[in-house]
């Protein structure tokens, strides 16, 4: 069971950081918003801090990883049907929120403080989503 938990943590830790990185880069390069870029970057670094609270060495995660046999690694058609940069941004933000929730729940088995940090990250994502979406809509309407 430990290997399964490590796989869940590994997948969601990577998914959360990757999703935040895509959001950060969209805000940085497509919308050129320095403050929001900094906020996404800080949140991404907060994920690393929360992860370290789990006291799981990365070697254990690497050893539990089995990408070749992952039964869910296929790409659904909807993933290939993005129409614009906003679709990409919103899909990655959703991915990040979902991963934060998984990490929050699984972390309860390892370190309650880490679980609370992932919960805080999730709620910050909700607020950031609202703030960013308004900004994106405003900029898209001007273009």
Summarize the structure in words:
The protein has 143 residues and is mainly α. It has one domain (2-63, 78-142). Helix content is 76%, strand content 0%. It has five helices and no strands. The chain has helices at residues 2-30, 34-52, 58-64, 85-107, 112-142. Helix 1 packs antiparallel against helix 2 (34-52), helix 1 (2-30) crosses helix 3 (58-64) and helix 2 runs antiparallel to helix 5 (112-142). It starts with a helix and ends with a helix. The mean pLDDT is 88.
Task: Write a brief structural summary.
The protein has one domain (2-63, 78-142). The chain is 76% helix and 0% strand.
Please summarize the sheet with the most strands: none
Shape: globular
Residue fraction in strands: under 5%
Indicate the radius of gyration in whole angstroms: 16 Å
Query: What's the overall average pLDDT, rounded?
Result: 88
The helix content, as a percent range, equals over 70%
| Poorly predicted ranges | none
Secondary-structure-based class equals: mainly alpha
Total number of strands: 0
Count structural domains: 1
Order of helices and strands: HHHHH
Terminal-residue CA separation: 52 Å
Summed up, the helix count is 5
